[in-house]
């Protein structure tokens, strides 16, 4: 049955009988059309070889030569192909929110998604990300990463004004199913902590690496190189022709991003005692 996503103010906080603070919906998409909406999403525009459109063994599609991803049966289909018509590499997708999300009193992200392959050597990303102004290496980031090498759970990661690289990784197993089953992935990004949830269950909390700058939200799929040994597979290689190309994908059923209201004044006072 077709799912329905209600893009309304669904969270609220009662401070007093006369004061209610709503959780504002910032982005809501159930991908109901035939193509991902340009009013909410974009893919990168190629600027230079070091602009982030090449990662690992993958070149991402960019606006000069590709359209936004297709949507099918209420899912955004995020794909990586083994044949790249412009270079000898994989041809991936990095879908980015048009909107940048500032922390404020908190941001709550809910995504329902699944990988459509367990071919080793592929990564599906669900994450917030931003380079620090003026830097090409220091950045903020909060991740769920779905590794086909590790299909029985999800990898979480976080960076706060840190260099690109390993980050602060923690792998969390599913209580049931695998990456090829739909799961609900949640990130609660708050001023003093970041929390990750899978299918409503808290799986990780970090209070030591909390990003503070605004970030865009990304959905991507790509093939890493040997620099990420946990995700790399030497048997997965780019195709040399379109006729031998293979397509791997991640289906994203819905994305809902909302603000987290501030705690009641009395609770704030209690925390400062």
How are the SSEs placed, and which strands pair?
Blueprint: E1 11-16, E2 19-23, E3 25-29, E4 41-42, E5 54-55, E6 58-60, E7 71-72, E8 75-81, E9 90-101, E10 107-115, E11 123-131, E12 138-147, E13 153-163, E14 170-173, E15 183-190, E16 193-198, E17 201-206, E18 215-222, E19 247-259, H1 265-272
Parallel strand pairs: 6-9
Antiparallel strand pairs: 1-2, 3-19, 4-9, 5-6, 7-8, 8-19, 9-18, 10-15, 10-19, 11-12, 11-18, 12-13, 13-14, 15-16, 16-17
Could you describe the 3D structure shown?
With 273 residues, the protein is mainly β. The chain has one helix spanning 265-272; strands at 11-16, 19-23, 25-29, 41-42, 54-55, 58-60, 71-72, 75-81, 90-101, 107-115, 123-131, 138-147, 153-163, 170-173, 183-190, 193-198, 201-206, 215-222, 247-259. Helix content is 3%, strand content 47%. The strands form 3 sheets. Strands 4, 5, 6, 9, 11, 12, 13, 14 and 18 form a 9-stranded mixed sheet that branches. Strands 3, 7, 8, 10, 15, 16, 17 and 19 form an 8-stranded antiparallel sheet that branches. It has one domain (24-263): Sandwich (Jelly Rolls), CATH 2.60.120.200. The protein is built from 1 helix and 19 strands. It starts with 10 loop residues before the first strand and ends with a helix.
């Amino acid at each position: 049955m077709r799912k329905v996503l209600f893009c309304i103010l669904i969270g609220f906080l009662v401070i007093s009988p006369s004061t209610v603070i709503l959780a504002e919906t910032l982005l809501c998409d159930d991908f109901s059309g035939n193509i991902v909406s340009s009013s909410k999403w974009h893919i990168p525009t190629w600027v230079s070889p070091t602009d982030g459109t090449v990662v690992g063994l993958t070149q991402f599609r960019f606006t000069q030569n590709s359209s936004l991803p297709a949507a099918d049966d209420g899912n955004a289909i995020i794909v990586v192909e083994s044949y790249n018509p412009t270079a000898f590499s994989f041809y991936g997708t990095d879908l980015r929110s048009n909107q940048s999300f500032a922390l404020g009193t908190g941001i709550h992200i809910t995504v329902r998604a699944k990988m459509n392959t367990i071919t080793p050597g592929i990564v599906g990303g669900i994450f917030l990300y931003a380079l620090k102004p003026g830097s090409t290496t220091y950045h903020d980031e909060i991740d769920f990463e779905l590794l086909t090498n590790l299909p029985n759970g999800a990898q979480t990661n976080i960076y706060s004004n840190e260099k690109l690289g390993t980050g602060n990784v923690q792998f969390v197993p599913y209580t049931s199913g695998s990456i090829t089953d739909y799961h609900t992935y949640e990130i609660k990004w708050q001023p003093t902590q970041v929390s990750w949830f899978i299918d409503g269950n808290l799986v990780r909390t970090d209070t030591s690496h909390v990003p503070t700058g605004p970030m865009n939200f990304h959905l991507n799929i790509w093939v890493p190189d040997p620099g990420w040994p946990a995700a790399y597979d030497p048997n997965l290689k780019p195709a040399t022709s379109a006729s031998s190309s293979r397509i791997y994908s991640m289906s994203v059923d819905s994305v809902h991003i909302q603000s987290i209201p501030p705690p009641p004044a009395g609770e704030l006072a209690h925390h400062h005692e």
